[in-house]
Amino acid sequence: MSKKRIHHPVIARWLLTRFRSRSNHESLIGDFDEIFMQIQEKQGKLKGRGWYWIQVMKSIPVFVNNSINGGTAMFINYMKIALRNLIRYKSFSTINIFGLSVSMACAFLIYLWIQDEIDYDRFHKDPVSIHRVMIDTKNYGIWNTTPIPLGPALENEFPDIINFARIQIFNGVFRIGENIYRERGYYIDPEFFEVFSYPLLSGDAGSVFNQLNSLVITEEMAKKYFGDEDPIGKTVNINNRDDFVVKGVLKASPGNSHFKFSFLVPFEIFRRSDREPDSFRRYQILTYIRTEQGSNVNDIEQKTANFLKNRNPEVNAELRLHPVTKIHLYNINGGGLITYLYVFSIIAIAIVVLASINSINMSTARSFSRAKEIGIRKINGAFRSDLAKQFLGEHLLYSFLALGIAIAASFILLPVFRDLIGADIPLENISYMDILKGSLIIGGLTGLISSVYPAYFLSSVRPLRLMKGGCIPGLKSDKRSLSKNALVVFQFAVSVFLVISTIFISKQVGMIKAKNLGFNKDNIIYFILRGNTGRQYESFRAELMNRQGVENVTIVSEPPIEISRVKTGWKWDGKPADIDPPMPHLMVGYDFFETFEIEFLQGRPFSRDLPSDAGEGYIINETAMRIIGDINPVGKSFAMNKREGWKEGRIIGVVKDFHFESLHSEIKPLVIDIYPEVYFSCVKLNNRDIDRTLNSISSVWNEFEPNLPFSYTFMEDYFYRMYESEDKTRNIMKYFMIIAVIISCLGLFSLTSFSIEQRRKEVGIRKVLGADVSGIIRLISAEFMLLIVIANGIAWPLTFISIRFWLRDFAYKIGIDLNVFFIALVISVFIASLTILFQVVKASMENPVDIIRHE
Amino acid sequence: MLTKLEEQVLMTVWRFKGEGYGVNIFQYLEEINDKKLTLGVVYDILERLARNGFVKTQFGSPTPVRGGMRKKFYGITDNGIRELIKSREVYDRVMDGFNELLDQQRPEDV
Question: What's the Cα-to-Cα distance from A177 to each of A228, A613, B75, B87, rounded to whole Å?
Answer without folding.
Answer: 17, 46, 96, 103
